[in-house]
Amino acid sequence: MLPPRQPPAVYASPYGPFPMFRPTMAAVPLVLAALACAEPSARPLTLTLTTRASGGEVMQSPSSVARLAPNELGRIPILEYHLIGDKESRWMVERGHFRRQLELLYERGYRPITVAELIDRKITLPAGQSPVVFTFDDASPSQFSYVERNGVLEVDPNSAIGIWLDFHRKHPDWGNKATFCLLPAAAAGHAFFGDKGIEGQKTAWRFRKVKFLADNGFELCGHTLWHANLAKYSDAEVQEQIARGIMAIDSAVPGYRVRTFALPLGVWPKNRALARAGEWRDPRTGLVVRYNFDAVLEVSGGPARSPFDSKFDPLRLPRVEVFGNALEQVLDQLDRTRTRYVSAGESAVVARTRPASSTVVPKR
Ligand SMILES: [Zn+2]
After folding, report:
1. pTM
2. Which residues lie near ion ligand 1 (Cβ < 5 Å)?
3. What is the pLDDT of residue 356?
4. Residue 11 and residue 1: Cα distance in Å, rounded?
Protein backbone atom coordinates (compact mmCIF):
# COMPACT_ATOMS: atom_id res chain seq x y z
CA MET A 1 0.00 0.00 0.00
CA LEU A 2 1.34 3.40 -0.90
CA PRO A 3 1.31 6.30 1.47
CA PRO A 4 -1.97 8.09 0.85
CA ARG A 5 -0.40 11.15 -0.66
CA GLN A 6 3.30 11.36 -1.03
CA PRO A 7 4.00 13.84 -3.77
CA PRO A 8 7.46 14.01 -5.19
CA ALA A 9 9.59 16.76 -3.71
CA VAL A 10 9.60 18.59 -6.99
CA TYR A 11 6.03 19.61 -6.52
CA ALA A 12 6.86 21.44 -3.33
CA SER A 13 7.37 24.40 -5.60
CA PRO A 14 4.72 24.56 -8.29
CA TYR A 15 6.50 26.85 -10.66
CA GLY A 16 10.10 26.22 -9.83
CA PRO A 17 12.22 23.88 -11.88
CA PHE A 18 11.04 20.31 -12.15
CA PRO A 19 14.28 18.57 -11.21
CA MET A 20 12.71 15.15 -11.38
CA PHE A 21 12.56 15.33 -15.12
CA ARG A 22 15.52 13.97 -16.93
CA PRO A 23 17.56 16.88 -18.20
CA THR A 24 17.24 16.58 -21.93
CA MET A 25 18.34 20.05 -22.97
CA ALA A 26 20.78 18.49 -25.38
CA ALA A 27 18.30 15.97 -26.69
CA VAL A 28 16.73 18.05 -29.40
CA PRO A 29 19.71 18.64 -31.65
CA LEU A 30 20.83 15.05 -31.17
CA VAL A 31 17.44 13.76 -32.06
CA LEU A 32 17.25 15.97 -35.10
CA ALA A 33 20.61 14.74 -36.24
CA ALA A 34 19.44 11.18 -35.80
CA LEU A 35 16.27 11.91 -37.70
CA ALA A 36 18.19 13.40 -40.58
CA CYS A 37 20.48 10.39 -40.59
CA ALA A 38 17.51 8.06 -40.66
CA GLU A 39 16.51 9.44 -44.01
CA PRO A 40 19.73 9.40 -45.98
CA SER A 41 18.00 9.83 -49.31
CA ALA A 42 16.31 13.05 -48.23
CA ARG A 43 16.96 15.97 -50.53
CA PRO A 44 16.53 19.54 -49.37
CA LEU A 45 13.07 20.66 -50.38
CA THR A 46 12.23 24.24 -51.12
CA LEU A 47 9.03 24.68 -49.22
CA THR A 48 8.64 28.37 -49.64
CA LEU A 49 6.76 29.56 -52.69
CA THR A 50 8.91 31.65 -54.91
CA THR A 51 6.99 34.33 -56.71
CA ARG A 52 8.25 37.10 -58.91
CA ALA A 53 6.99 40.52 -57.98
CA SER A 54 6.38 43.10 -60.67
CA GLY A 55 9.79 44.62 -60.14
CA GLY A 56 11.48 41.31 -60.82
CA GLU A 57 12.34 40.87 -57.16
CA VAL A 58 12.06 37.33 -55.83
CA MET A 59 9.66 37.11 -52.89
CA GLN A 60 9.48 34.29 -50.42
CA SER A 61 6.13 33.36 -48.98
CA PRO A 62 5.73 30.89 -46.14
CA SER A 63 2.25 29.94 -47.35
CA SER A 64 3.42 26.85 -49.13
CA VAL A 65 1.02 24.29 -47.77
CA ALA A 66 -0.79 23.67 -51.04
CA ARG A 67 2.47 22.77 -52.73
CA LEU A 68 3.51 20.04 -50.31
CA ALA A 69 3.57 16.59 -51.86
CA PRO A 70 1.77 13.89 -49.89
CA ASN A 71 4.08 11.90 -47.63
CA GLU A 72 2.15 9.58 -45.38
CA LEU A 73 5.28 7.85 -44.18
CA GLY A 74 6.59 11.14 -42.83
CA ARG A 75 7.13 12.02 -39.18
CA ILE A 76 4.52 13.41 -36.83
CA PRO A 77 5.53 15.62 -33.89
CA ILE A 78 3.93 14.65 -30.59
CA LEU A 79 4.39 17.85 -28.61
CA GLU A 80 4.81 17.75 -24.85
CA TYR A 81 3.80 20.80 -22.83
CA HIS A 82 4.06 21.36 -19.09
CA LEU A 83 3.31 24.83 -17.73
CA ILE A 84 1.87 27.78 -19.65
CA GLY A 85 2.61 31.06 -17.86
CA ASP A 86 4.20 34.47 -17.58
CA LYS A 87 7.70 33.61 -18.68
CA GLU A 88 9.80 31.14 -20.62
CA SER A 89 11.68 28.41 -18.78
CA ARG A 90 12.67 24.79 -19.10
CA TRP A 91 9.18 23.79 -18.02
CA MET A 92 7.12 26.80 -19.00
CA VAL A 93 6.02 28.31 -22.30
CA GLU A 94 5.03 31.95 -22.04
CA ARG A 95 1.36 32.25 -22.98
CA GLY A 96 1.92 34.73 -25.80
CA HIS A 97 4.46 32.31 -27.25
CA PHE A 98 1.95 29.48 -26.90
CA ARG A 99 -0.56 31.51 -28.94
CA ARG A 100 2.07 32.16 -31.59
CA GLN A 101 2.90 28.47 -31.71
CA LEU A 102 -0.73 27.63 -32.46
CA GLU A 103 -0.70 30.30 -35.15
CA LEU A 104 2.57 29.05 -36.61
CA LEU A 105 1.40 25.46 -36.77
CA TYR A 106 -1.89 26.51 -38.32
CA GLU A 107 -0.23 28.64 -40.98
CA ARG A 108 2.20 25.88 -41.85
CA GLY A 109 -0.67 23.49 -42.48
CA TYR A 110 -0.68 21.47 -39.28
CA ARG A 111 -3.93 20.39 -37.66
CA PRO A 112 -4.19 18.64 -34.29
CA ILE A 113 -5.15 15.02 -33.72
CA THR A 114 -5.18 13.09 -30.44
CA VAL A 115 -2.88 10.22 -29.51
CA ALA A 116 -5.88 7.89 -29.83
CA GLU A 117 -6.48 9.06 -33.39
CA LEU A 118 -2.81 8.65 -34.21
CA ILE A 119 -2.64 5.04 -33.07
CA ASP A 120 -5.98 4.28 -34.75
CA ARG A 121 -4.55 5.74 -38.00
CA LYS A 122 -7.50 8.12 -38.06
CA ILE A 123 -5.75 10.94 -39.85
CA THR A 124 -8.55 12.42 -41.91
CA LEU A 125 -6.92 15.64 -42.99
CA PRO A 126 -7.33 17.25 -46.40
CA ALA A 127 -4.51 16.69 -48.87
CA GLY A 128 -1.49 18.84 -48.10
CA GLN A 129 -2.13 19.16 -44.38
CA SER A 130 -0.04 17.60 -41.61
CA PRO A 131 -1.04 16.13 -38.26
CA VAL A 132 0.41 17.37 -34.98
CA VAL A 133 -0.31 15.83 -31.58
CA PHE A 134 -0.51 18.02 -28.47
CA THR A 135 0.05 16.44 -25.07
CA PHE A 136 -0.21 18.38 -21.83
CA ASP A 137 1.41 16.71 -18.82
CA ASP A 138 0.84 17.04 -15.07
CA ALA A 139 -2.59 18.73 -14.91
CA SER A 140 -1.46 22.09 -13.53
CA PRO A 141 -3.81 25.07 -13.04
CA SER A 142 -1.86 26.86 -15.77
CA GLN A 143 -3.30 24.39 -18.27
CA PHE A 144 -6.91 24.69 -17.15
CA SER A 145 -8.22 27.20 -14.67
CA TYR A 146 -11.62 28.68 -13.96
CA VAL A 147 -12.54 32.18 -12.94
CA GLU A 148 -15.72 32.61 -10.93
CA ARG A 149 -17.93 35.55 -11.85
CA ASN A 150 -21.18 36.04 -9.97
CA GLY A 151 -21.27 32.37 -9.14
CA VAL A 152 -20.68 31.30 -12.74
CA LEU A 153 -17.52 29.43 -13.68
CA GLU A 154 -15.79 30.57 -16.82
CA VAL A 155 -12.72 29.08 -18.44
CA ASP A 156 -9.78 31.38 -17.67
CA PRO A 157 -8.78 32.85 -21.04
CA ASN A 158 -5.16 32.96 -19.83
CA SER A 159 -4.92 29.23 -19.18
CA ALA A 160 -3.78 26.91 -21.96
CA ILE A 161 -7.29 25.57 -22.51
CA GLY A 162 -8.67 29.14 -22.62
CA ILE A 163 -6.13 30.09 -25.28
CA TRP A 164 -6.87 26.88 -27.19
CA LEU A 165 -10.65 27.38 -27.16
CA ASP A 166 -10.24 30.98 -28.33
CA PHE A 167 -8.04 29.78 -31.18
CA HIS A 168 -10.59 27.09 -32.04
CA ARG A 169 -13.36 29.72 -32.20
CA LYS A 170 -11.34 31.77 -34.67
CA HIS A 171 -10.20 28.73 -36.64
CA PRO A 172 -12.99 26.13 -36.59
CA ASP A 173 -10.87 23.65 -38.56
CA TRP A 174 -8.43 23.62 -35.63
CA GLY A 175 -10.27 20.95 -33.64
CA ASN A 176 -10.41 20.33 -29.92
CA LYS A 177 -7.86 17.56 -30.28
CA ALA A 178 -5.27 17.37 -27.56
CA THR A 179 -4.32 14.73 -25.02
CA PHE A 180 -4.14 15.63 -21.31
CA CYS A 181 -1.97 13.34 -19.17
CA LEU A 182 -3.47 13.75 -15.76
CA LEU A 183 -2.30 13.64 -12.18
CA PRO A 184 -5.23 13.45 -9.76
CA ALA A 185 -3.32 13.82 -6.51
CA ALA A 186 0.08 15.47 -6.72
CA ALA A 187 0.93 18.47 -4.57
CA ALA A 188 1.02 22.17 -5.39
CA GLY A 189 -2.12 22.11 -7.48
CA HIS A 190 -1.07 19.31 -9.82
CA ALA A 191 -4.30 17.57 -8.99
CA PHE A 192 -6.75 17.64 -11.90
CA PHE A 193 -5.75 21.25 -12.63
CA GLY A 194 -5.74 22.71 -9.15
CA ASP A 195 -7.02 22.33 -5.63
CA LYS A 196 -6.95 23.97 -2.19
CA GLY A 197 -7.14 27.48 -3.61
CA ILE A 198 -3.80 27.21 -5.39
CA GLU A 199 -3.83 29.66 -8.30
CA GLY A 200 -7.35 30.49 -7.21
CA GLN A 201 -8.58 27.00 -8.05
CA LYS A 202 -11.07 25.22 -5.81
CA THR A 203 -10.87 21.53 -5.05
CA ALA A 204 -14.55 21.20 -5.94
CA TRP A 205 -13.87 22.17 -9.56
CA ARG A 206 -11.51 19.34 -10.36
CA PHE A 207 -13.88 16.71 -11.74
CA ARG A 208 -15.78 19.34 -13.66
CA LYS A 209 -12.61 20.30 -15.52
CA VAL A 210 -11.76 16.73 -16.42
CA LYS A 211 -15.31 16.11 -17.62
CA PHE A 212 -15.26 19.34 -19.62
CA LEU A 213 -12.22 18.08 -21.52
CA ALA A 214 -13.81 14.72 -22.31
CA ASP A 215 -17.12 16.32 -23.29
CA ASN A 216 -15.38 18.70 -25.68
CA GLY A 217 -13.38 16.16 -27.65
CA PHE A 218 -10.07 16.17 -25.80
CA GLU A 219 -8.42 12.90 -24.79
CA LEU A 220 -7.71 11.95 -21.17
CA CYS A 221 -4.46 10.12 -20.50
CA GLY A 222 -3.02 8.49 -17.38
CA HIS A 223 0.17 9.72 -15.73
CA THR A 224 0.03 7.89 -12.33
CA LEU A 225 -1.45 9.14 -9.10
CA TRP A 226 1.22 11.68 -8.17
CA HIS A 227 3.98 11.47 -10.73
CA ALA A 228 5.70 8.43 -9.36
CA ASN A 229 9.13 7.42 -10.60
CA LEU A 230 8.02 3.92 -11.50
CA ALA A 231 11.52 2.43 -11.53
CA LYS A 232 11.67 2.89 -7.76
CA TYR A 233 8.63 0.79 -6.93
CA SER A 234 7.67 -2.83 -6.59
CA ASP A 235 5.40 -4.38 -9.20
CA ALA A 236 2.46 -4.06 -6.82
CA GLU A 237 3.14 -0.39 -6.16
CA VAL A 238 3.58 0.37 -9.86
CA GLN A 239 0.16 -1.09 -10.57
CA GLU A 240 -1.36 0.77 -7.66
CA GLN A 241 0.05 4.09 -8.85
CA ILE A 242 -1.25 3.63 -12.37
CA ALA A 243 -4.58 2.04 -11.45
CA ARG A 244 -5.44 4.71 -8.89
CA GLY A 245 -4.76 7.37 -11.49
CA ILE A 246 -7.16 5.64 -13.83
CA MET A 247 -9.72 5.14 -11.08
CA ALA A 248 -9.67 8.88 -10.38
CA ILE A 249 -10.36 9.65 -14.05
CA ASP A 250 -13.25 7.20 -13.92
CA SER A 251 -14.62 9.06 -10.91
CA ALA A 252 -14.62 12.29 -12.92
CA VAL A 253 -15.91 10.74 -16.16
CA PRO A 254 -17.61 7.44 -15.34
CA GLY A 255 -16.94 4.74 -17.91
CA TYR A 256 -14.19 6.66 -19.71
CA ARG A 257 -11.68 4.25 -21.22
CA VAL A 258 -8.18 5.62 -20.82
CA ARG A 259 -6.15 4.39 -23.79
CA THR A 260 -2.96 6.42 -23.39
CA PHE A 261 -0.43 6.45 -20.57
CA ALA A 262 2.50 8.85 -20.19
CA LEU A 263 5.50 7.58 -18.22
CA PRO A 264 6.38 10.09 -15.47
CA LEU A 265 9.93 11.32 -16.18
CA GLY A 266 9.95 8.94 -19.12
CA VAL A 267 11.01 6.25 -16.65
CA TRP A 268 9.84 2.67 -17.22
CA PRO A 269 9.02 0.38 -14.33
CA LYS A 270 11.46 -2.49 -13.78
CA ASN A 271 8.78 -4.77 -15.20
CA ARG A 272 8.09 -2.81 -18.37
CA ALA A 273 4.94 -4.74 -19.22
CA LEU A 274 3.25 -3.13 -16.22
CA ALA A 275 3.35 0.25 -17.94
CA ARG A 276 0.92 -1.16 -20.45
CA ALA A 277 -1.39 -3.39 -18.43
CA GLY A 278 -2.00 -4.36 -14.86
CA GLU A 279 -4.47 -4.35 -12.01
CA TRP A 280 -4.85 -3.32 -8.41
CA ARG A 281 -7.35 -4.33 -5.75
CA ASP A 282 -8.79 -1.44 -3.78
CA PRO A 283 -8.53 -2.63 -0.16
CA ARG A 284 -11.44 -0.47 0.92
CA THR A 285 -13.96 -1.86 -1.53
CA GLY A 286 -12.34 -5.08 -2.70
CA LEU A 287 -12.89 -3.95 -6.28
CA VAL A 288 -10.20 -4.75 -8.81
CA VAL A 289 -9.20 -1.84 -11.04
CA ARG A 290 -7.65 -2.93 -14.33
CA TYR A 291 -5.82 -0.91 -16.95
CA ASN A 292 -4.80 -1.89 -20.46
CA PHE A 293 -3.39 0.93 -22.57
CA ASP A 294 -3.05 1.13 -26.33
CA ALA A 295 -0.36 3.81 -26.26
CA VAL A 296 2.58 4.62 -23.98
CA LEU A 297 4.29 8.00 -24.23
CA GLU A 298 7.94 8.62 -23.50
CA VAL A 299 9.23 12.13 -22.75
CA SER A 300 11.63 12.74 -25.62
CA GLY A 301 13.00 11.22 -28.79
CA GLY A 302 11.89 13.59 -31.54
CA PRO A 303 9.00 13.37 -34.02
CA ALA A 304 7.20 10.02 -34.15
CA ARG A 305 7.04 7.63 -37.06
CA SER A 306 3.91 7.48 -39.16
CA PRO A 307 1.36 4.91 -38.01
CA PHE A 308 1.48 3.59 -41.59
CA ASP A 309 5.14 2.71 -41.09
CA SER A 310 5.48 -0.90 -39.88
CA LYS A 311 8.16 0.29 -37.43
CA PHE A 312 5.61 2.53 -35.68
CA ASP A 313 5.34 1.34 -32.07
CA PRO A 314 2.32 2.75 -30.20
CA LEU A 315 3.66 1.34 -26.94
CA ARG A 316 6.77 3.45 -27.11
CA LEU A 317 5.93 6.82 -28.61
CA PRO A 318 8.62 9.50 -28.63
CA ARG A 319 7.73 13.12 -27.97
CA VAL A 320 9.10 16.59 -28.57
CA GLU A 321 9.46 18.59 -25.36
CA VAL A 322 8.33 22.13 -26.07
CA PHE A 323 10.44 24.83 -24.46
CA GLY A 324 12.48 27.67 -25.91
CA ASN A 325 12.49 27.35 -29.68
CA ALA A 326 12.38 23.55 -29.76
CA LEU A 327 9.07 23.46 -31.62
CA GLU A 328 10.13 25.96 -34.25
CA GLN A 329 13.38 24.08 -34.81
CA VAL A 330 11.64 20.75 -35.20
CA LEU A 331 9.20 22.15 -37.75
CA ASP A 332 12.03 23.66 -39.76
CA GLN A 333 13.98 20.43 -39.62
CA LEU A 334 11.02 18.32 -40.76
CA ASP A 335 10.62 20.57 -43.79
CA ARG A 336 14.29 20.86 -44.57
CA THR A 337 14.81 17.10 -44.49
CA ARG A 338 11.49 16.44 -46.22
CA THR A 339 10.51 14.06 -43.45
CA ARG A 340 7.21 15.67 -42.51
CA TYR A 341 3.98 13.70 -42.71
CA VAL A 342 1.75 15.28 -45.35
CA SER A 343 -1.73 13.91 -45.92
CA ALA A 344 -2.89 12.65 -49.32
CA GLY A 345 -6.50 13.35 -48.42
CA GLU A 346 -8.98 10.69 -49.48
CA SER A 347 -6.35 8.50 -51.11
CA ALA A 348 -6.93 4.82 -50.39
CA VAL A 349 -3.25 3.99 -50.51
CA VAL A 350 -0.43 5.32 -48.40
CA ALA A 351 1.25 8.11 -50.32
CA ARG A 352 5.02 8.30 -50.08
CA THR A 353 7.70 10.44 -51.58
CA ARG A 354 10.42 7.83 -51.84
CA PRO A 355 10.89 4.11 -51.36
CA ALA A 356 10.29 3.30 -47.73
CA SER A 357 12.97 1.82 -45.51
CA SER A 358 10.31 -0.19 -43.76
CA THR A 359 7.10 -1.93 -44.71
CA VAL A 360 3.96 0.08 -45.23
CA VAL A 361 0.86 -0.71 -43.23
CA PRO A 362 -2.18 -0.59 -45.57
CA LYS A 363 -4.69 2.17 -44.94
CA ARG A 364 -7.76 -0.01 -45.01
ZN1 LIG B 1 4.83 14.52 -15.98
Report:
1. 0.83
2. 137-138
3. 60
4. 22
